[in-house]
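Aim 2 progress update. The chain analyzed this quarter is reproduced below.
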Amino acid sequence: MKLFIQVPCLNEEGSLPAVLSSIPDRIDGIDEIVILVIDDGSTDRTVEVAHEHGVTHVLRHTRTMGLARSFRDGVDYALARGADIVVNTDGDNQYPQDRIGDLVQPILAGRADIVIADRQTRTIAEFSPFKKTMQRFGSFVVNRAASTSLPDAASGFRAYSRAALLRLNVVTQFSYCMETIIQAGNKRLRIASLPVVTNPKTRESRLFTSVFHHMAKSASAIIRSYLMFKPYVIFASLGVFFGVLAAIPFVRFLILWASHGDTAGNVQSLIFGSIMAVAALLSLALGVISDLQRTNRVLLEEQLERIKEIQYRR
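Predicted structure tokens:
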């Protein structure tokens, strides 16, 4: 079994040595451990530090491409070199790399395709009460969209099996965390959770400028991913909503006409109801079209999975 541990970095020369030194040299069930540092356009000595600590696999971006692209490029690099399992940690030393052995055990035992560390955010002192609440709410929304029950959906400390990576396709530009969970849940991949205790905070996040920025980006990724797999739920809900709004003024008009016989001054009910009826029909049409596109996407992803199997054949 070949394990790739990828460490995405952006100006991490200060914390990278601690990350690399805490990665275990030996793990039960693993024959070979390879460390891959992904430099996302760093302007400091991140790459030099990686080489000084014996890292021979370094993937460099000439400019900052973002966490999602770093993850995707790292996965491509690892699969092309025969990785059976890929673990993603972070260059800021947030995650306890000494737990990597525990993180991969469910995959080695065949109990899971993906293992996600639970940071137990309610116990992290650096997180404000508002951020802890938003983390729980975000995990709740993702779990509803993916039909999972993960306590920490935003955690980036994860292990993926080769089979899972062949089936997942990262398309977002912000963060892969939410998107891969929703994809994995809807593709019926087995996802396990492992409680961990994070390391003390070393710096502010470079992925987002504020909690609200993170919420907006995460919401966008969740909605986009959900629409990819269950568009009929969104458009059926909109169709029912507009249909009810259309029915209310129509029923009101009929009641007034039946009881008084005079509908003067109530024509606006028919106009409003007609507009809402058109909106309901449009939602229905969009739902049919999006569901057909979903079917086409499933067929394309099956082809892409076969192409990956050929491309990354060992």
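The chain has a mean pLDDT of 88. The longest strand covers residues 32-40. These observations will guide the mutagenesis experiments scheduled for the next reporting period.
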